Amino acid sequence: MDVYELLPSIVMTVLFLGILPLGQKVWISADLTITSAWGLMCITFPQFVMQYQVDGEIDMQHEYFYRLFGFVLLVTSLFGVLTQNSDDPTVKITFLWSRVIATSVYILNRVYSIYNITKDPQWNDRSLYFGTYGDVLWFLGSLYHSLRCQDWGYANEAHLRIDLHLRMDTLLTFFMALMYFVFPGHVFKIQVGISSI
Q: pLDDT-derived band of residue 195, with 50, 70 and 90 as boundaries?
């Protein structure tokens, strides 16, 4: 692995560290811009985008699903753009939490597929330190700004510590449910101590 291959990860890290402290509005704007650009890349150049992170031959079915993924990204960006000017403070926090949930599902799915897909095409090392790494940064930024949000509309708790604990409890409960949904065999193996199912 050379510096050229690590350059995208370095650029993502610098962008992340530069954008994160600038506030929720800047984070959401950057999120929408990057998501829209990536969605357009997936739609327009699926072979090029996938070939960077995948070893093996990419067929038309993979291109179709990657284009579909690009359209999903564009639709979520459109939703974000349309809600960005809302005066209701719960809209932005809902948007950020939807990013946290969607990105966590995507990361778990990606990690699972990296370690469990044995047929071609397979994810390569760049999918870890470019794709998955970028997804984790995206998740962490949205989570950071979600947890820092002060105004939850009428459901706001007056005590900041209790409010933070409730948010963390929600997040941990969601992740536990997600683990049971995405990795039922692995969770069951851990719980009952059976080596194979």
A: low
**Tell me, what DSSP letter sits at residue 84?**
T
Identify the sign of the CA torsion 107, 42, 79, 22: positive
DSSP 25-63: HHHHHHHHHHHHHHHHHHHH-HHHHHHHHEES---HHHH
Q: Locate tokens 């990361």: which residue?
A: 107
CA distance 161 to 144: 16
Dig out the tokens for 58 from the structure: 């990419």
Q: Which two tokens stand for residue 158?
A: 């007056």
Token reading at 179: 């683990």
Query: Which residue type sits at 62?
Result: H
